[in-house]
Every structure is written in structure tokens, then in C-alpha cells.
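This part of the workshop introduces the protein records we will be handling. As an example, a complete record with its sequence and its C-alpha cells follows.
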Amino acid sequence: MKLTTPVSLPEAAPQLSLSSHVLLMGSCFAEGVGQRLKDSLPEGHVMSNPFGVLYNPASIASALGCLLDGKLPTDEMLFAGRDGLWHSWLHDGRFSAADKTACAEMIERQFAAACDFLDKADLLCVTWGTSRFYQPLQSRLVAANCHKMPAATFQTADAAPEEIVGDYMPLLRALCVRRPGLRVVLTVSPYRYLKYGLHGSALTKARLLLAADVLEQAHDAVCYFPAYEIVTDELRDYRFYAADMVHPSEVAADYVFERFKTWCFDSELQAFAQDKAALLRDHRHRPLHSDSPLYAEFLAGMDRRTADFCTYWQNRGLNKDETAIMA
């Protein structure tokens, strides 16, 4: 008896190894998968959302374009919000600050790091959440985040599949010129936009799926990973959503990541990820009684296991920083 409908994964999977570097950009679902990748790859080999969480394809395309150009439209993107903070139309709220200079400095530091990272990335994962975008009336930029500005501040529309494709085709060409051999994995977030209504949510996902399919067919470097289908068709149950019934649960994210890991990790990286996961569980353990003899014994054993892990993997080509365990 079959109780699930397993989703087939693309045969042409990008192969990730110990030396691979992965850049992720997109929705909050990309953020969750990005953290799991950080926990699985050598330290410093994963960068997730250097502009913060981005939901619509246009904002992600703008961010990638800035990385390719090596510059930001600083004067145009920064604005004073009604909450007394300075924000950026291209970034989420983690970069907001009470002072314009502080806001700009946070953005510039992260941007410089992301430009450097792009030059060594082997895989770019892009997760689209919605085709709907908000454009400030007084700016040519698409808002990555509305920063609680009034609705009257924006004009709203849904990008058609052909518009998304038109934005991404030149970007993909430029990315592959900049970084030959780069693979690009497109995904669609399983987040349910109930505020659009169920029909509206389905339509926005359909636009994204159509655009992803065209890009995959048109460009050899592009591959679509069916995270959306795994959650909505393979898992297909409300228990795999959080209490708000719109966000996938941690269990769902774990399941999708396990499928992703099996799909594209080579055998050596899978062994490294397994070893690192065991150590991270130890390092993240929070005892009830930190002054007990048993906990002191646990810490001593953890230190020995960590030292053995570092020695083993450094002998296989990683450096000291790459074998660090960041709990």
C-alpha cells in the first residue's frame, strides 16, 4: 500500500563537495534551508540572504544585479521611515537603524562580503515566494520589504512569468560569465499566501513555477528543485505546517533538506555533515545543572570528539577555520 506520492528529483543534480561554496537568496524558506546548509558544510562555505529575506523575483534580481555590478544605489534605496528608523528598499529590517550612517554602514559591510563570496560560489540557490511586488510611488526600485509604510506609498502588481524570465535571462548569462561553472538552483517556497485567498495564493505560485520551468529549459546552468511540490504533494498534510497554517513546519523543512542533501551532496560531504551534526548537537546542549560532575564529564568528552573531528577533516584538506564548530 502506497500512502505517499514521492516527488522525483531532477537527474542533473549539482554536486556539492567539501570545497563547494553556496550562496542562497530568497524567502524565509531559503533562510531555514540556508541554516541547515551552514550546519552541514565547512564553516564559511555558505552565505544566506546578504540582503535579508526577499520574497519576490524582482527584488532578488535587483540584489543579484547589484552584486554583479559591485555597487548599490545608496542614495535612492535609503529612506526615513515613519517609525523613526532609516531603512533600505532593497533590504529587510535587519539592516534598519536609527541613524542613516549606521544603516548604510551595515549594508555596505554585508554587501562587500557578499561580492567577495559570489566570486567563489559554486551554487546559487534562489527561492521565490510570491510574484506580487510593491513599488514605492516615489522610486524606481521594487520594495524588498515595505517596512510598515502606508499602503498608499506603493503601487502593487503581479509579475507575469514572461516578465520574470525577462529579468533573469540576462542575469544568468552575466553570472555564468562572472563565475564559469556556477550552477543555479531555483525553488518556490511552500509558504501559503492566505492573505491573497487560496485561489490567489495558487495563482502566484503558478506564475513562479511557469517562469522557473522556462528558465530551466533555456539555460544549462539552471535546475529546478521541487521543494514546493515535496511539501504540498509528497507530505500533503496540515501537520507539516506551523501553527499559523502558512509557514512550513521545522519537520517539513528538515524533510526537504534531507531530500536536497541526498540529491546533491557527494559521499565525502555527507560523511562530513553527519560528523558535524553530531558535534553541533553536543555544542548546543543546554544542561539543567551546569555545575554537575556529569556535565563536566560531558564537556570533556565533547572537547575530545571536537579535536578528533578537526584532526580528521584537516587531514583531508580543510583548514582550521573550516572545521570550526559554531554552535
Observations:
- The mean pLDDT is 95.
- The longest helix spans residues 293-314.
- The first strand starts at residue 22 and ends at 26.
